[in-house]
Amino acid sequence: MPDLAKLIQQEIETSGPITFARFMEQALYHPQLGYYKSPGTKIGRAGDFYTAPTVNPLFGAMLARQLYQMWGWAGHPDKWVVVEYGPGTGILARDITAALRQNHPDLYTVLVYYLIEISDALKKVQQQTLATSELVEINKFNWIDSLARIGPGYIENGCVLANELVDAFPVHLVKQSDSELQELYVGLRGGKDDIAFTLVAGPLSTPELAEYFSIQNVHLEKDQQAEVNLQAREWLAAVSSHLKHGYLITIDYGTTSEELYAAHRFDGTLRCFYKHRLVDDPLINIGGQDITAHVNFSILITWGEQLGLHKKDLTNQPQFLLNLGILDILQKQPDYTQNPDFVKINSAIKQLVLPGGMGGIFKVLVQEKGVS
């Protein structure tokens, strides 16, 4: 099998330096060799990073409460579609549907759950997770590769859920020079037997990059570097065009544009993860490490309004979970610390909602379309 780094090198040698977005797309999503397409554990203790659903079923149970509220706001329609993007190992789908089955059987009865997954390896893991669980019924779940596959081509009533999805979209890298905004491309350096990837500055590959900062009234400092996630707009457009009545929940790490492009983030937010270790260089270990960047929730709101997805709420993950009553769960457990369930749940809540835990840098954006 060819080496992914070699394939990217050949593309650059043939066509010249490529945008970082193109490089990141290949590194993460190449059909055979990309990080998310290749076999191997990505999530959990044996993988490269944790996600909130891997902490405890409580996270899914709280989202189930939110979905039940949304179903009520929509007038209790006789079919409620949930679409989960990038469902990982299937744990979140399992926990949401298990909580609905136990606590909200009226919604569970009319629930149809879709999982959008591009990785064949992860799809098999998800099917195994859900088929072997005694908590859910496998016939509740459907695997699709796009929203267009939902019959009759759109969601009449429902919710689209994206947990840690947008941060993995390919991003453009830009840098402010003395007089203008420039784009950073991936090129080559070194001799014939010692070639390596490097970043080289050049003109913007698309005027959308300058427009991105203009509509937010953001001005970078000289030599400041930043990321621009243009694919997020394409994704929002797809969601809006296929969602007739319902909601979009985006959960990810990130912040508003005011904070994201502040001077203290002079070098941007691009990060790589390998075996739970932070790696600063995205141009190494190609196809073997995760590459992410903070999500700009301000632009998701702005683009959403343009596309008919109206902001209902933006908050941090701890507050989102507290608003849904996550602390109520503790009250239902025997109040003594020797109870294993109490200890386990108490620890999970701390991880999800306390400062220093997983939830501190995560935001939750709820947008709505066609509902009052």
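(the above was protein one; protein two follows)
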Amino acid sequence: MKHIYRIALAFLVTVGMAQADPLFGIWQSTADDNGNFGHIEMQDCDGKICGTLIKSFGPSGKQISSENVGKLIVWDMKSKGNGKYGSGKIWTPDRDKTYASKLVLSGDQLRVSGCILILCREGGIWQRVK
């Protein structure tokens, strides 16, 4: 009976991994206006992609306490194919602004940009955390 459970578990894990979006995982943001950066965990949120701040770091690179840990940074993002994502929002804690966002995935790099009306901001290139 244990053998059947192991096979079923292996099947479920394999199926789950096959459906995982390549964007899923932990990403290190670029430094904001204050020199702080964070680790954002990208995952599925009801069929769309969202990203939650899980760690904050100061300009020195040391982990710091932040009231923003646990908050959504990215939400409602949808895959557009070929490593491109859009139709979502991104919140920047340093300016406390929410932007209509686009993401472009290339290997372990994620180009982040966003706009409010005609004012756009490059969010830099985030790096996948290994």
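Reviewer note on protein two: The chain has one domain: 22-128.
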